[in-house]
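=== RUN LOG ===
request id: a7f3
mode: sequence -> structure
chains: 1
length: 428
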Amino acid sequence: MTFLLSVALIASTLARPSASDAGPAVVVRAARLIDGRGGAPVAPAMVLVEGDRIAGVGQNLAVPAGARVIDLGDATLLPGLIDLHTHLTDKFGVHWEEVLTTTTPPEAALWGAKNARDTLLAGFTTCREMGPTWPYVDVALRDAIAQGAVPGPRLMVPGNYVSSTGGAGDARQFSIYVDVPIVRNLADGAEEITKAVRTNFKNGADFIKILVTGAVLSKGIPPGAQQYSEEEIRAAVVEANRWGRPVAAHAHGADGIKAAIRAGVRTVDHGSYLDDEAVALLKASGRKTFYVPTLYTNDAILNGEGAKIPDSEVERARRIREIAFGAFRRALAAGIPIGFATDASVIPHGKNAHEMTIRVGLGESPMAAIVSATSLNAEILGWSDRVGSVEKGKLADLVAVSGDPLKDITEMERVRFVMKDGVVYRND
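=== RESULT ===
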């Protein structure tokens, strides 16, 4: 663990700008502000930043003496964006099985530093990591970012995911004679799952990721099949809740989705086979459990954008693509809240906002897509007190695009300005 953190610290050339560069106060001006809460844009807009916090928001604020003024002209200001499903320590274009057999944890730490920077510069100032291929490298990356060694989004991390024998992500599906001893992520039965949860928290995890169904990019049980019983999922939730922490469930198939909701997980990630019964369960949960799709991934796989993927897994992506799109449309029609996530590195790091373009193409309004990636995601994380909207007292996370994303959602793929914690990382 200490070694991995040291490796991340080596990337000193990527160190963030000094907070002192911002001066005692900063005023950011723009033609309009979408504050992340779903209301009408503020136009014109001014945001006063003092230290790492937002001190004022309005159309015509007084500029304090000595304040630095950043005038973005005919731009749109927004809150820093939030992605609930990333794999920053995975190098884009390398299949996870190849990672286990040809790479090392230090490589993952260094690529994590690069990917974190790319993601931040794309406007994503907060991310929930969803499990590194090499366990606990995400913990090292989170800490290196928090300590200012490398620039990147603030992270919530799981340390290591929890999966079943023969299930998604089983690192022992190469040959019975091949082992990857550092990867100990398999747990069968409530007792083993409870121990896995405790082990992850002991080693620095913020939450638990449990793989409830099969996966697209994995051998073993298919994505639509449930690999953990409801009792096993509940064991993870009960233990995590004892620590005051949530559980995120990787779940494609309908039976797994519904078992995870009944067990009390915080998010159902992917949710490809979400059906009417699952939608009803989500509504009945009273915003305790959220659907978090990742729709760009199948296109990325089918278009050959990433790793050389086995034909069997490409075929899984082909079969599930329209099913996942249908699930998203079903959720939209039902009016349930939909979290925003991408599954980077299945998609290229830094292209996270293309997920919004896909969602709007499927019928979501641009404003709803933006709210999903800002205030709704902050609610899901339990971080509404600090991120997700441009309000007085929140952390000074601001991004800007040149045009109006309510008229053209693809503007979100062309972020020109990024501030995190009051520090400017990008200003084009």
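=== NOTES ===
The chain is about 35% helix and 15% strand.
The first helix runs from residue 2 to 9.
=== END ===
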